[in-house]
Amino acid sequence: MTGDAAAAGRDVDWDALRAAAREAMSRAYAPYSGFRVGVAALADDGRTVVGCNVENASYGVGLCAECGLVSQLAATGGGRLTHFVCVDGQGAPLVPCGRCRQLLYEFGGPDLVLETPDGFRTLDAMLPQAFGPQHLG
Known about the structure:
137 residues; five-stranded mixed sheet; 5 helices
């Protein structure tokens, strides 16, 4: 864990967050790629929000798990993401792609703590100098 991420993640039940991500992954709809993804995050009010990938025969219009997660965040009251886990089809930690890191930045900001295969990182460490709402007039 990096210093800031270690401190921010100390009081989080990462096992429960991973279990929620694995449960979401078990509901993924991935008949084309076979690559199932599940995510779970804590919101700043203590809610756990989840998402899974949903593919489509048109391939490019599939939905990533992170899209489902932020949609659930908004639909259940909004807020900010504080801690995030992404797992693959075997339940192992997986890092979000660049597009999804940008999406997470919008709803969690630079201090969002992510579990990665090699420890915990803040989103700022994974997406340095990110473009965000602060850049818009």
